[in-house]
Automatic annotation (TrEMBL):
Family to which the UniProt record says this protein belongs: Belongs to the glycosyltransferase 8 family.
Membrane protein topology class: Single-pass type II membrane protein
Lineage, highest ranks first: Eukaryota, Viridiplantae, Streptophyta, Embryophyta, Tracheophyta
Biological process per Gene Ontology, one example term: cell wall organization
UniProt keyword list: Cell wall biogenesis/degradation, Glycoprotein, Glycosyltransferase, Membrane, Signal, Signal-anchor, Transferase, Transmembrane, Transmembrane helix
Signal peptide range in chain numbering: 1-28
EC number: 2.4.1.-
Name of the protein in question: Hexosyltransferase
Major subcellular site: membrane
SUPFAM superfamilies membership: Nucleotide-diphospho-sugar transferases (SSF53448)
The keyword Acyltransferase is assigned to this record: no
Length: 351
């Protein structure tokens, strides 16, 4: 009890000290001292993850590395940390995982420190993504989160990562992996640029507008293609083929058409469908149990699809950390919770 009293007294003292600083800073402004604003919003604090080591059968050569790309969005950082932990925890060779993170330049130092303190042994690099590459090409979609520049960073991945990386797995931040990612890494691409779980018999009228369907020239693009949808939040990409095929430019061209004519609804997905629909290497559905975040409007709870699961993906509006914090979680959110490294302010004070 005495310990708690001392902690309370210390907190009061700290509060008084901060108020004094605030008063002093205010006075400093009056005499012309310039106070700099923080370069980034205050990031959440995370517990340090355990160290994960390779099994005896793991190689230690460059060819043994598994390259994984993710974006670092300050609003989704809690999800990213959980995803990384899940990948390490279920990997036979966790030290062979190489992470390539894309972030906005003005947050880079803060994000680096956050990742390094949470995963001291992680093999990773952060690359600056210039939002001006895509900002003028983005059209307003059905959900604001889909319109953020980082949501389009995957399009430029092949131009940003080192040229010696010829294959990469791209993953969204709102997922956890519950299987060894090496199994997905070794998928036989069969000459395709992209490999992903594929869902055929899709209703493409859902993705494209009347403006698209009323134009015979645009409709021709889908003629002869199998009506197959894939979620771009989980993809294996042959980076060499992507570069040689100039697919970044092809996606950009469709984005410019969208800007002028509004031919589709959903963020960055439809350009991928216009280019790759029915022409990817299909991967077992177990590698993207998607839609757990509900739809893009209300984010209502959804149940798991039947069958084996290697990856759980909260695509849609509802995110597990937000629903858990609001004390209104869906049942599937409890599958995400064990990977949450977030150290709440209440937890920190109690320590």
């Amino acid at each position: 009890m005495a310990s708690r009293s001392r902690s309370y007294t210390q907190l009061l003292g700290l509060l008084s000290f901060n108020l004094l600083l605030f008063t002093t800073s205010t006075a400093a402004v009056r005499v012309g001292v310039i106070l700099h604003k923080p370069s980034a919003p205050t990031l959440p604090v995370f517990r340090e993850a355990p160290a994960f080591r390779n099994g005896d059968q793991c190689g230690n050569q460059e060819a043994d590395h598994i390259h994984i790309a993710m974006t670092l969005d300050t609003n989704y950082l809690r999800g990213t940390m959980a995803a990384v932990l899940s990948l390490l925890q279920h990997s036979t060779c966790p030290e062979n995982l190489s992470f390539h993170f894309l972030s906005l330049a003005h947050f880079e130092n803060d994000l680096f420190s956050s990742i390094k303190s949470t995963f001291p042994y992680l093999n990773f690099k952060i690359y600056q993504f210039d939002p001006n590459l895509v900002r003028s090409k983005i059209s307003k979609s059905i959900r604001e989160a889909l319109d953020q520049p980082l949501n389009y960073a995957r399009i430029y991945l092949a131009d940003i990562i080192p040229t010696n990386v010829d294959r990469i797995i791209y993953l969204d931040s709102d997922l956890v992996v519950v299987d060894d990612i090496e199994k997905l890494w070794h998928v036989e691409m069969e000459g395709k640029v992209v490999a992903a779980p594929e869902y055929c018999h899709a209703n493409f009228t859902y993705y494209f507008t009347k403006s698209f369907w009323s134009d015979p020239e645009l409709v021709k693009v889908l003629e002869g293609k199998r009506p197959c949808y894939f979620n771009t939040g989980v993809m294996v990409v042959d980076v060499d083929k992507w570069r040689r095929g100039m697919y970044t430019q092809k996606v950009e061209e469709w984005m410019m058409v969208q800007k002028q004519r509004k031919i589709y609804h959903l963020g960055s997905l439809p350009p991928f469908l216009l280019i790759f629909a029915g022409d990817i290497k299909a991967v077992d559905h177990r590698w993207n149990q998607h839609g757990l975040g509900g739809d893009n409007f209300e984010g209502k709870c959804r149940t798991l699809h039947p069958g084996p699961i290697s990856l759980l993906h909260w695509s849609g509006k509802g995110k597990p950390w937000l629903r858990l914090d609001s004390r209104k979680p869906c049942s599937v959110d409890h599958l995400w919770a064990p990977y949450d490294l977030y150290r709440s302010s209440r937890h920190s004070l109690e320590e």
